[in-house]
From TrEMBL:
The species this protein was found in: Pseudonocardia cypriaca
Spans traversing the lipid bilayer: 141-160, 167-186
Protein name in the entry: Secreted protein
Signal peptide span: 1-23
UniProt entry keywords in alphabetical sequence: Membrane, Signal, Transmembrane, Transmembrane helix
Source domain of life: Bacteria
Length: 450
């Protein structure tokens, strides 16, 4: 009877191997992670992939350390109109993750609504029209059928009194394997599956070119005072038409990355929430009076990454940040960060490394933040802003913030555009706390570094 046990294993493999073929092949159907600075909370909203329509939509919310707990109201509504479904979600103090299930009943464009009682963030997402290609469907159906027939043949051989039913069923299983294998081999020569439109969730027309988008103008409206928390209202305007820009795509797990640098070297990395088409809001407490540079990093569909900026003023006396010091050991969120830098020559790639330890031991529980192992933000004597990432293993799936296996070493490669003194901020996450390490480095001119 050993051969029966072996065939049972083969049949089980056939049945389970068919499942991945049903997985969605486009980025629209994947989990979405969206960073959000909502009111006085720093959140990451995770919209899980919808498996069936009608069916549940899983939403998880990560609350960062330093953000208060409390209750949010989370709902989903179709963008083309329809009833909203909403539920309350309770966040814990001090960082952590909480989730709930909503219901969706149609494919296409939706908005996730997250309300903190003062304002409502609106996150666009898509429930895709998930139809697998014919070759994929044939391969899946073939292996599934083969597995079922093989199990039936085994049952007939073990318990039946006639010899011919197992032979017929076994022959059918063999034929199904041949069909499935042929479809799998032919699929490699077929053209790739059509790209999914991130607005509708349906295949893009091959006759519709994806034209580039004009420059985005950033308009900031704010009344700021040193030491007081106030809203920064952002308007994104198309440089050609003057119309609101509402075709942003997720760029490193955010619709907009906002870096605010104060006159005394103060630093904030925020993620404004979308409150209406082309309109975003974030709350900000300046530590100093004077002019603040506001840098946005965003990506339009078909238009690539753009870096519009603006200035705002805060009333109150100017305050200078303490000088952060150069490479070496720095205290950082209960850890020690050892900063090293090499090849600090303008126009040449530099390697900047942060190695984290605590209590004399290497730190190995860093969490990914914004889909990356770490972030490096720089500004130079001419005000130019740089933002680079410590990339994860490209062959591995990027985990969300609930997975803490990173560290101790986080490495960046950046080419400083100009000589002079540059301020650099290393950012990583641990225990749901975003840790920022400021450092100053001196970059030499190319002729001086030869």
């Amino acid at each position: 009877m050993r051969w029966i046990g072996g065939l049972l294993v083969v049949a089980a493999v056939m049945l389970t191997s068919a499942t991945p073929a049903l997985a969605h092949g486009g980025v629209v159907g994947a989990d979405l992670r969206i960073a959000a600075s909502l009111g006085d909370r720093e959140l990451t909203v995770i919209i899980r992939r919808v498996a069936a329509v009608p069916g549940p939509l899983r939403v998880d919310v990560v609350n960062h350390a330093g953000s208060r707990g409390g209750t949010l109201r989370v709902g989903a509504v179709p963008q083309n109109g329809g009833p909203a479904t909403a539920r309350e979600l309770r966040l814990t103090d001090g960082g952590g993750s909480a989730g709930l299930d909503l219901q969706v009943d149609r494919v296409g464009a939706w908005e996730l609504l997250v309300d903190d009682g003062r304002e409502t963030a609106r996150f666009p997402f898509v429930v895709p029209d998930d139809v697998p290609p014919a070759a994929e469907w044939t391969t899946t159906a073939g292996f599934t059928t083969a597995g079922g027939l093989l199990l039936a043949a085994l049952a007939g051989a073990a318990f039946g009194r006639r010899a011919w039913p197992p032979l017929v069923l076994g022959g059918g299983a063999a034929a199904a394997v041949v069909v499935a294998t042929t479809a799998a081999l032919l699929s490699s020569s077929l053209p790739p599956q059509q790209e999914i439109d991130p607005v509708t969730g349906r295949p893009l027309s091959i006759d519709a070119p994806d034209a580039g988008r004009p420059h985005v103008n950033l308009l900031v409206d704010a009344t700021l005072a040193a030491g007081e928390r106030s809203p920064l209202d952002l308007r994104l305007v198309d440089g050609a038409t003057g119309r609101p820009v509402d075709d942003l795509v997720l760029h490193h797990d955010a619709l907009v990355h906002l870096v605010v640098i104060g006159p005394g070297g103060q630093f904030a990395h925020l993620h404004p929430v979308r409150v209406a088409p082309g309109e975003f809001r974030v709350w900000f407490r300046p530590a100093s009076g004077g002019e603040h540079r506001v840098h946005a990093e965003l990506e339009r569909r078909g238009g690539g990454v753009q870096l519009p900026d603006a200035t705002v003023r805060a009333t109150g006396p100017p305050v200078a940040e303490p000088l952060p010091g150069g490479p070496g050991d720095h205290d950082a969120g209960g850890m020690t960060a050892r900063i090293t830098a090499s090849t600090l020559v303008a126009g040449e790639p530099s390697v900047l490394t942060a190695e984290f330890g605590a209590a004399g031991q290497p730190v190995r529980d860093l969490q990914p933040w914004l889909g990356m192992a770490g972030h490096l933000i720089t500004t130079g004597p001419d005000g130019t802003l740089g933002h680079v990432h410590a990339m994860p293993d490209p062959t591995a799936a990027v985990p969300d913030e609930t997975v803490a296996t990173g560290g101790p070493r986080v490495e960046f490669v950046y080419t400083f555009p100009t000589a002079g003194r540059h301020r650099v901020w290393f950012q990583v996450e641990r225990d749901y706390q975003v840790v920022t390490v400021p450092v100053e480095v001196d970059v030499t001119a190319a002729e001086d570094g030869s």
